[in-house]
């Protein structure tokens, strides 16, 4: 398949409820996960809900990481959407699963932008000449 | 099914290549789509890539809207992740399909946070008392 993006939809169950209600910690963890994956963070925005829950997104050169937490249910919805072949999404996922104390997870992998062009598809470039189109 | 979130993964093909390379316009359209859906925008961050492509995310009270564009392929990856029963994701999608000039689209709907609790699940509250947990 000739595609542009790789999207992991991750359900994290039975997480550390106190930690997933801590917006500062969640932002730290997501930024660290981006680093671990080898992706490049561009911008991020995180929000703490009242009385509980956190939403946050890191836009990366290679698409985005996002998380939404429901501490009252011990649940987090995590998305790791990347493009290119060099990003190690699984390493980021292993790190977050461990740090969030997830008791169980479910992962669905979706290929995004499946295009019928007879050439190798290149993801959007930022700095690296290797990726330049 | 008892679930927390509704996630539309949308592939938009054959879009207006000039428009999907315009970060200002893409941000305007995504924010307008959020409004049309009835969701509440909290924060947003958009980035223009060089030489082409835009990535942007709007964090909403009800999760997020995100878009990544590849003008060189006329393609956009759109995600509309919402919680609660009052958000009209389809209206936002119809608006964006039209505005981006998409020649064709494909939509995958994924339920997020399917939990085995014997109670009605409530999404995270912000202001509305109706949604308060």
End-to-end Cα distance of chain A: 20 Å
- Number of H- or I-type helical stretches of chain A: 2
Oligomer: homodimer
The total count of strands of chain A amounts to: 6
> Average pLDDT across residues of chain A?
91
**CATH domain class of chain A:** Alpha Beta
CATH second-level architecture of chain A: 4-Layer Sandwich
Percent helix of chain A, as a range, is 10-25%
The strand line-up of the biggest sheet of chain A is 2-3-4-5-1-6
Largest sheet of chain A: 6 strands, antiparallel
Order of helices and strands of chain A: EHEEEEHE
The named CATH superfamily of chain A? S-adenosylmethionine decarboxylase
Overall structural class of chain A, as computed from helix and strand content, comes to: alpha+beta
Task: Write down the domain tally of chain A.
Answer: 1
Low-confidence stretches of chain A: 126-133
Which protein chains make the most extensive interface, counting residues with beta carbons within 8 Å of the other chain's beta carbons? A-B, 46 and 46 residues
Shape of chain A: elongated
Strand content of chain A: 35-45%
CATH fold-level name of chain A: S-adenosylmethionine decarboxylase
Name its key features.
disordered C terminus; alpha+beta; homodimer; 133 residues; 41% strand
